[in-house]
């Protein structure tokens, strides 16, 4: 069974880079351009893992985490935060919000895939 | 999608982000407290930085980082935006744009200005600057290679047994972690034995499936360094009780200390492999658009990226279709069928469809003038800085769409005119003050559609043209005779004369005229016209009228001598069938026509193209009134006007050779080639060839006589 990834990022370049690495590693790739769209399409895509940027229009990454982790439709799907900041503060904030892990931009394909594998059990 | 095309997309996205940045900054000027706007500006810079990092464009990342950090302070309301900071943001935005450009074109960019800007930006950060800088370094190191020490030889070869206790908390599950996967990851590192502790599982009635009851005790025999173990538990630190110790193997203390908060993932990869993983170097199978369609159902607007060549080929083919349609129409007419009523109806429908297709295809090439206009705000800023004037730019109608090529070729002339508007159009702040004007001058750029053409206006609210000075200069340069009498518009148009002004004299001049002939030529090359209106004390407006497209145009099909030709309708002001009474002979064989009381020189098209005349058009024919910058109103004499139609423009230069007075060619319905005339050039030709009696002064004498 293929592992479905939902990537939420307002940068086309980052979405492209993620698509290329993840499709190359055998993931089924879906993307959204902002937090709101990501949360909206989440039920339809029903991903095995979510990757989200923090700074985005309409709804930021923390909003995404809150939406997915809170409320009646709460899900335990792994959520990875994509961040350019590697500060501990941001990581602990993300963790407290309910994020599963983080990827520091710029990321390299190998580590990205290995992190996803660790969170989803995906095999290439 | 190959690495290169991802890179291309990155730069395309940068263009969009830079546009959004410029727009955001100008909005910030209006409403500095609107955090939505500040956020948008921040995101633009941030996204450029994020993408640039992926391509190891360190200089771009570094500058964007400084910029973003200051913007972040504004976002957090730690920093108030004043005029000085706003100006810094603008300059930083300009520089970011330069950096993107130099990264894209792989050209060198002088870094003197950059260090100055970074210094200015950092001055807003105080002590934070150093700390932030450090964090940025960590990011780049992550990418370029291992940020932390690689394990030594000893570590990697020695087999050790790790003793691991792992007790997840409820939050670990809630954050989407799966202990089983963590155990799997450990098992990948060596030989793993797992013992589950189920003692804490409560009675069935007290069992909460969301809670955490299990814990594990594991032994891992592995030659992997400890950092790899840390990595496995990286994300769950704080969400579990974890205790790792080494039971056998090289002397090492128990790892009960907090896990390294920031082990970079994948740092154990050999550098070569990391490089191989860079997107530029790989070309994995890219699954085409059908799958992609679902993935981006929303966003600003769904778009499709198409190679420009393909669009141009399509446009060309549609051009052929229009010609073909014209031919079929003509053939059917020639058949002289008795009952063609419904055939002509179908034909009319075909014609409309062909036109629809053509307009649709043209629309693909159309782009809003907004990016072009936005670039001008920078020119205004730079020119006002350089001249010590204060200016702001206002744009109107920037969503007006114009052919891509037109936009591209308009960039230089527009830059010129905008720079002139600030340099020569606007007064100095004190001058404006004493004239009772706002010390900040306004440069207004507007675009609009006007019946099949595009009108672009560049206005300033300056002092208006200094006509005395312009005339004096033109006389001094010998461009007009000293005793010439010219109307105001004629004086204004002197600016467009080649040689009116040279770059060396720019700053010494208060009038306009820096390379305006260059501007005029560029606009002409696009099939457009440029004109000036100026009101003393109120300002000056340059208006550029351009065809919507370079591929088709509306023209009159005319005959000149025996030849069928086409003349662009846009250039014709009026057509006259003259009364012989109104035609007067001047000199030996030159003629003027009296039009509502003023005399207009007649230029015979056939004579000027060197066509021998078989019909007798002397004194007869049709006169087309055209207005040119150089010669004012002129009447072109042709034999007859046959039809008005849309023609497909075919370059004569690329198919044959350039002919003076002829701008291009087209194929008519009967399959014949017809030349498309360039009225302005024709008239200039008449004056240059010397068989024109209406040198400027004689015309003036007539007019004022």
Automatic annotation (TrEMBL), chain A:
Q: By its UniProt entry, which SUPFAM superfamilies does this protein fall under?
A: CheY-like
The record, for PROSITE patterns, names: RESPONSE_REGULATORY
The residues forming a coiled coil are: none
Q: Which GO terms describe its biological process?
A: phosphorelay signal transduction system
Assigned keywords, A-Z: Phosphoprotein
Span-the-membrane segments of this chain are: none
Checking PANTHER family in the record gives:
CHEMOTAXIS TWO-COMPONENT RESPONSE REGULATOR, STRESS RESPONSE REGULATOR PROTEIN 1
Return the protein name: Chemotaxis two-component response regulator protein
Give the originating organism: Mameliella alba
């Amino acid at each position: 069974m293929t592992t479905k990834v939902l990537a939420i990022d307002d940068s086309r370049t980052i979405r492209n880079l993620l698509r290329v690495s993840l499709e190359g590693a055998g993931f089924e790739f879906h993307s959204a351009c902002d937090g709101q769209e990501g949360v909206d399409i989440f039920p339809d895509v029903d991903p095995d893992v979510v990757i989200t940027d923090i700074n985005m229009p309409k709804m930021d990454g923390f909003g995404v985490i809150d939406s997915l982790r809170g409320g009646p439709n709460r899900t335990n799907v792994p959520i990875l935060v994509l961040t350019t900041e590697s500060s501990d503060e941001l990581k602990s904030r993300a963790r407290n919000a309910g994020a599963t892990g983080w990827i520091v931009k710029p990321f390299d394909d190998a580590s990205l895939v290995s992190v996803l594998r660790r969170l989803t059990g995906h095999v290439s | 999608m190959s690495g290169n095309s991802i890179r291309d997309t990155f730069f395309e996205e940068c263009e969009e982000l830079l546009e959004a940045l410029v727009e955001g900054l100008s909005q910030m000027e209006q409403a500095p407290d609107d955090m939505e706007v500040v956020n948008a500006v921040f995101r633009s810079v941030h996204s450029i930085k994020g993408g640039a990092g992926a391509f190891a464009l360190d200089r771009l990342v570094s500058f964007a980082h400084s910029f973003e950090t200051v913007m972040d302070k504004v976002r957090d309301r730690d920093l108030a935006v004043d005029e000085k900071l706003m100006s810094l943001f603008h300059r930083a935005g300009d520089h970011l744009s330069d950096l993107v450009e130099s990264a894209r074109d792989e050209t060198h960019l002088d870094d003197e200005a950059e260090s100055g800007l970074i210094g200015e930006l950092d001055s807003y950060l105080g002590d934070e600057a150093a700390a932030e800088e450090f964090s940025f370094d960590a990011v780049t190191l992550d990418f370029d290679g291992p940020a932390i020490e690689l394990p030594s030889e000893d570590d990697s070869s020695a087999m050790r047994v790790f003793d691991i206790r792992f007790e997840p908390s409820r939050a670990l599950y809630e954050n989407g972690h799966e202990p089983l996967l963590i155990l799997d990851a450990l098992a990948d590192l060596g030989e793993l034995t797992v013992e589950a502790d189920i003692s804490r599982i409560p009675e069935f009635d007290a069992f909460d499936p969301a809670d955490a009851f299990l814990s594990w005790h594991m032994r891992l025999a592995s030659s992997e360094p400890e950092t790899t173990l840390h990595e496995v538990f990286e994300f769950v630190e704080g969400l579990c009780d974890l205790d790792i110790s080494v039971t056998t193997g090289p002397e090492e203390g128990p790892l009960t200390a907090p896990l390294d908060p920031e082990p970079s993932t994948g740092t154990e990869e050999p550098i070569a492999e990391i490089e191989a993983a860079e997107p530029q170097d790989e070309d994995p199978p890219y699954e085409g658009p059908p799958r992609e369609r679902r993935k981006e159902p929303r966003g600003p607007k769904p778009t499709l990226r198409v190679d420009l060549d393909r669009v141009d080929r399509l446009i060309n083919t549609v051009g052929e279709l229009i010609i073909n349609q014209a031919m079929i129409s003509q053939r059917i007419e020639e058949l002289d069928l008795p009952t063609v009523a419904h055939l002509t109806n179908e034909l009319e429908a075909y014609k409309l469809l062909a036109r629809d297709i053509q307009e649709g295809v043209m629309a693909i090439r159309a782009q809003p003038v907004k990016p072009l206009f936005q670039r001008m705000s920078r020119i205004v800023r730079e020119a006002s800085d350089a001249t010590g004037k204060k200016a702001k730019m206002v744009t109107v109608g920037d969503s007006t769409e114009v052919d891509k090529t037109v936009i591209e070729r308009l960039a230089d002339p527009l830059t010129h005119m905008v720079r002139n508007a600030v340099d020569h159009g606007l007064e100095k702040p004190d001058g404006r003050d004493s004239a009772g004007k706002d010390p900040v001058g306004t440069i207004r750029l507007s675009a609009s559609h006007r019946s099949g053409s595009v009108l672009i206006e560049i206005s300033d609210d300056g002092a208006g043209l200094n006509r005395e000075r312009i005339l004096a200069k033109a006389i001094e340069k010998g461009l007009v005779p000293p005793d010439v009498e010219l109307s105001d518009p004629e004086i204004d148009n002197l600016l467009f004369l080649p040689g009116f002004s040279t770059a060396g004299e720019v700053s010494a001049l208060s009038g306009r005229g820096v390379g305006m002939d260059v501007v005029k030529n560029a606009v002409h090359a696009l099939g457009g016209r440029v004109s000036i209106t100026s009101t003393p004390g109120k300002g000056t407006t340059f208006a550029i009228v351009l065809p919507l497209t370079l591929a088709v145009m509306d023209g009159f099909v005319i005959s000149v001598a025996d030849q069928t030709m086409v003349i662009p309708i846009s250039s014709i002001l009026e057509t006259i069938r003259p009364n012989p009474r109104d035609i007067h002979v001047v000199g030996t064989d030159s003629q003027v026509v009296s039009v509502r009381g003023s005399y207009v020189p007649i230029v015979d098209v056939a004579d000027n193209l060197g066509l021998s005349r078989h019909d007798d058009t002397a004194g007869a024919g049709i006169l087309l009134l055209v207005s040119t910058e150089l010669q004012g109103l002129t009447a072109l004499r042709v034999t007859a006007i046959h039809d008005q139609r849309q023609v497909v423009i075919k370059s004569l230069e690329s198919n044959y050779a350039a002919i003076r007075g002829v701008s291009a060619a087209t194929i008519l319905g009967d399959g014949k080639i017809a030349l498309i005339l360039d009225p302005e050039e024709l008239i200039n030709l008449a004056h240059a060839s010397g068989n024109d009696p209406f040198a400027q002064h004689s015309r003036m004498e007539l007019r004022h006589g």
